[in-house]
Design brief:
Layout lengths: L6 E2 L11 E3 L6 E3 L17 E2 L1 H8 L3 H10 L6 E3 L3 E5 H9 L6 H9 L1
Antiparallel strand pairs: 1-2, 2-3, 4-6, 5-6
Length: 114
């Protein structure tokens, strides 16, 4: 991701941490923590946060489905940002989806029965 195209959010807003960045008006929320230097294992990993609409698009579900999963449980982990805004870490969405990946229906039923 070229850093020249990244512009910071309004830092006076209390809804976003100071490390939040936005790619464009139509892109999802992306927060960067530390830097992504894979050579040094002691450096913090880069976290990317998606807003509700982008997370729903990534999972191919509606934003209302994500809202229901948050209320009833069973969906991917989310982060509350402010009083009304939530974000999803892309790695958590992928972890949640991979935990629900099965080679066949019998394997899925066997996991639910256990």
């Amino acid at each position: 991701m070229p850093f020249a195209s990244v512009k910071p959010f309004d830092q006076t807003s209390d809804l976003f941490p100071r490390t939040a960045y936005q790619l464009s008006a139509k892109s999802p929320l992306v927060a960067i923590s530390g830097h992504d230097d894979e050579r040094d294992p002691m450096t913090p990993q880069m976290k990317q946060y998606l807003d509700e609409a982008a997370a729903a698009e990534m999972l191919n579900v509606s934003p209302r489905t994500l809202q229901r999963w948050r209320a009833e449980g069973g969906g991917p982990a989310f982060t509350r940002i402010g009083m009304r805004r939530v974000a999803y870490v892309t790695a958590e969405i992928e972890r949640w989806a991979s935990a629900r990946t099965f080679p066949h229906r019998a394997a899925e039923l066997a996991q639910h029965a256990a």
